[in-house]
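Sequence in, structure out. Go.
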Amino acid sequence: MTGAHRSDGAPRPDGAYASGGARRGRDRQARLLPPRPGSPRIDGPRPTTAVVGGGIAGLAAATALAERGVGVTLYEREAYLGGRAGGWPVDLADGSTVTMSRGFHAFFRQYYNLRGLLRRTDPRLQRLTALPDYPLRHSSGLRDSFRHVPRTPPWSALGFAALSPSFGLRDLRALRPLAALPLLDVRVPEVYERLDGTSAHDFLEAVRFPEKARHLAFEVFSRSFFTDPRELSAAEMVLMFHIYFLGSAEGLLFDVPRAPFPAALWDPLADYVRRHGGDVRTATAVEHIARTPDGAYVLTAGGAQRRHDTVVLALDAAGLRSLVGRSGQLGDAPWRERIQRLRTAPPFLVTRLWLDRPVDPGRPGFLGTSGYGGLDNISVLERWEDEAARWAARTGGSVVELHAYAVRPDASRDVEQKRLTEELHRVYPETRRATVVDARHEWRQDCPSFPVGGYRDRPTVRTPEPGLVLAGDLVRTDLPVALMERAATSGFLAANALLERWGVRGQTLWTVPNQGRGALLRALARWGGG
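Output:
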C-alpha cells in the first residue's frame, strides 16, 4: 500500500487506500457507498458518545468516532474485547498459559469493511494469513473443496457444480431452474420481500438441490448462523450464496489471524482508539441508561454515573433486551417491543483439546464436516496460530478445536462433549491414540436468530431518538453483508448517523455488488420472478 492515508477510507487518485479503508481486492464490481459530505473532524467543543459493547460493531463505531474528534467512551462487560471473536487467558494442566476463544472465524476477502477496520493498525493485513482451501467432508465419504473453483461469477457456481463429486448428471437433470432463478439477481432488501417467508430448507426442496451437495454447499451458510435450515430464513441463505458465489469475485477465499484474537486484532485496535482520545473500559457493565431533559444520556456503570451526548448500543440480542428493559426511557413503545422480541439462535459448543501427539501432518488446518453427529468443523490451530504452534513445538502435540453448531437446548453437555471427541476420532483416527493434556469446552447461546419471517421486525441502526443508534450483526442494514462483516458495517453506519448530526463526514463503505452480475442473468431472474 502506497500513498498518504485518509481515515475515511476513500480511494485516492493514485489508487491507494487509507489504512482504515477497504480495498476492493480483485472484484472490480465492488460497490462504493460514500458518506454524506461534511467537515473532516469536529470543529469546536467535542461531543461525547458512549459505545456500549466492545465487539466488532462497537469497536468499528468507536474507531470511526474517535478518529473524527468525538469523545468516545467504550464500555465492555467482559475483561476482553472482540465479542464473539474475543479471547482470554487460561492456565493448562501442564502449567502453560494460553489464549482460549469461542472458536474459529474466517476473515473472507469480501469482508471489506471489517478488513478496513483492521487496517487501522495493520495496513497490509500482515497479522492475517491465508488458508489454502475450504475443504468439506461428509461421513458418506464424499469430499469437496473450493480451492479450484473459479472465482468469477457465474463460473464460480458452475465450476462448483462441475467439479463437485456431490453433483451427478441425474442430480443436474432433477434441478428446477425456474425455482433457482432468485439466486441470479439478489438485491437487498427485495430478497427479503421475496424469500423471508420461506425457510432455507423449503427453498432448497423447491429447487430440488441435490441432498449430498446441499450438505456440503448450503449447510456451510446455514450453520454459520448457528441455525437449522428448517428454521433459517431462505433470504439469509440466498444472500450468503450471493456474497460468496454469484455476487462476488472474491469467492470463498479467507484469511485467519496468525496470533490469538486479542494480540492480532483487538488489543492493537484498542490502543489505536486510545491514541485518538478514546477511553476503553473493559470489565465494565452498563447497568442503566437514563435520558436527561436536554436530550443527553446518563449511563450507570460500575456504580458510577457519567453523562454522554449520544449512545451506540452494540450488544447481542440478550444484552440489548436486558439493558433496554432496565432503561425505560429509551426509544418509544413500539421500538422497545421490537427489541424485546429479538431471539437468539440455539446453543453451540466449542471444544479445544491439547493433545500429547500431533495430528497427521497431511490434515488441513480447517475442515468442514457433515454427517458426523453434531460435529461441524475441525481446526488444527498450530497450522496457522503462533501460540498454538509454540505449544505444539515444545510438547510434540497438537491443538485441535471442534465446533458443534445449533445443539439442542435440552442436550446433555457432558454427552455432547464426549460425542464431539468421538466424532473427531472418526474423522482423524490417529487422535484416538493421543492423550488429552487439557480440554476446554465453551457453551454459548448468544448468536442472533434469523427466523423465517423475522426480517421486518429486526431493528435498524437508527432508532426513534436521533442520539441513540444500534450496531451489531442482529441489526438490519439493507446492505448485502452478513456475519462479522454485518457487525463491522453496522458499527460504521451507527458512527456515520451520529457524525451527520455534527456535520462531519463519516466512514466510506464498500459492499459486494447489490445485484446479480451480468445483464443476461439479471434478465433471467426478472423473467422468472414475473
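Check: The CA atoms of residues 52 and 75 lie 5 Å apart. The chain has a mean pLDDT of 88.
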